UniProtKB/TrEMBL annotation:
Gene3D superfamilies: membrane protein fhac
Lineage, broadest ranks: Bacteria, Pseudomonadati, Bacteroidota, Bacteroidia, Marinilabiliales
Protein name: POTRA domain-containing protein
Every POTRA domain range: 37-111, 194-282
Entries under InterPro entries matching the protein: BamA/TamA_POTRA (IPR010827), POTRA (IPR034746)
Keywords: Membrane
Bilayer-spanning residue ranges: none
Annotated Gene Ontology cellular component terms: outer membrane
Domain of life: Bacteria
Pfam families, per the entry: POTRA
Subcellular location: Membrane
């Protein structure tokens, strides 16, 4: 922080000293009246790993440019270097002044480069998975942003696995075998996985709490007679998959308007969570009239017979998709197996009356392509 404040002081006051060499010109004061100079030379010095010419170009200054000292040009150049995030120290000074010509020296201390990362507290397989996400390559510059980013990625990785209390501490130490290189020691303490203590539901009438609990296979709660160590771990990704499974099951039972109103997750002191889910079930729907249009190869009665869904059956979108497209004897396969490879069937809700859904099956038979290449 002190180093940062020192650099900001340089940034604000541009305490650049003009080194006069063998001339008798007095040192220029930058608290005095601004004066224009032409940049005659830009020299970059410091502990560098990159081409000085490239580093000089990063300043935005160029030879032949007229600048005002004191003024915004030097300030802007210093600011640019800091914005790149690649340097730990930046200073701009004048090495010489000849009349209206100024010779600039830009001192840069590049941030160290990565030699290696040591993971402490993880298994080999975990290290490989974390490394893929962190993606810090050897030789890359180690910036505060990249270190913070690595910590965040590691925590997120283990949160996805159910380790919500993971602690990550990255310690930077010098690599004594290589100049301006560092080793990062990554200390990871995953803690214990968070477990589900209670899973409650509100707004459900068609499905009991126990049934909903069973649907949420990856999240269901701890029972009193169940061994504590068999309690389901709380993993956010699996939890959201279980929420989707609830809606899917409602849809299969005809509740096509069902949705999750809200859900809350409360953390307990014993490393468990209590989950409360509020549902809106909506009405239960049934299949109504099913008509076919656009079909000429097969009559509608035959297609309905193969669909095997009757008027009055509970509306089940999953079953409808399976009987139209997914099953081996699905209706669409009648066309596909007969060479109509580009045929399509599009089910459309044409009328919803109270709890009944009338469907129109729009058939696009297309043209059967000719058989070629047969001898």
């Amino acid at each position: 922080m002190l180093q940062r404040l020192s650099i900001l002081f340089v940034l604000l006051f541009i305490s650049v000293h003009l080194l006069l060499g063998q001339t008798s010109t007095p040192e220029i004061s930058y608290t005095g009246k601004p004066k224009e100079y032409v940049i005659a030379e830009i020299e970059v010095t410091g502990d560098l790993n990159n081409d000085p010419k490239i580093l000089a170009n990063l300043s935005g200054l160029r030879v032949g440019q007229t600048i005002t000292v004191p003024g915004d040009d030097i300030t802007a150049a210093i600011k640019k270097y800091w914005e790149y995030g690649l340097f730990s120290d930046v200073k701009v000074s004048a090495s010489k002044v000849e009349g209206s010509n100024i010779y600039l020296n830009i001192y840069l201390q590049e941030r160290p480069r990565l030699s290696s990362m040591n993971y402490l507290g993880l298994k080999k397989s975990e290290i490989e998975a974390v490394n893929d996400k962190v993606a810090m390559m050897r030789g890359s510059q180690v910036t505060p942003y990249l270190v913070t980013r690595a910590e965040r990625f590691i925590k997120e990785h283990f949160v996805e696995k159910g380790f919500y209390n993971t602690e990550v501490d990255i310690v930077q130490r010098d690599d004594t075998s290589r100049v301006n290189h560092v080793i990062l020691d990554v200390h990871v303490d995953k803690k214990e996985k968070v477990k589900v203590n209670y899973l409650g539901f509100e707004g459900n009438e068609a499905f009991t709490d126990n049934r909903l609990n069973r649907i949420m296979k990856k999240t269901n709660e701890r029972k009193k007679l169940r061994n504590f160590f068999r309690t389901k771990k709380f993993v956010e990704e699996e939890y959201h998959n279980d929420l989707d499974a609830i809606i899917e099951k409602y849809n299969e039972e005809g509740y096509r308007d069902a949705y999750i109103v809200s859900d809350s997750i409360a953390r307990n002191d014993d490393n468990t969570v209590d989950i409360e889910i509020t549902l809106e079930e909506g009405s239960q729907y049934y299949f109504g009239e099913i008509t076919w249009v656009g079909n000429s190869i097969y009559p509608g009665e035959y297609l309905s017979h193969n669909l095997r869904i009757q008027k009055g059956d509970i509306f089940n979108q999953t079953l409808l998709d399976e009987r139209l497209f997914m099953d081996d004897d699905a209706v669409h396969n009648l066309y596909m197996n007969n060479g109509y490879l580009f045929s399509r069937i599009i089910p459309v809700d044409v009328k919803i009356s109270n709890d009944t859904v009338d469907l129109e099956m729009r058939v696009y038979e297309a043209i059967r392509p000719p058989l070629t290449g047969l001898s």
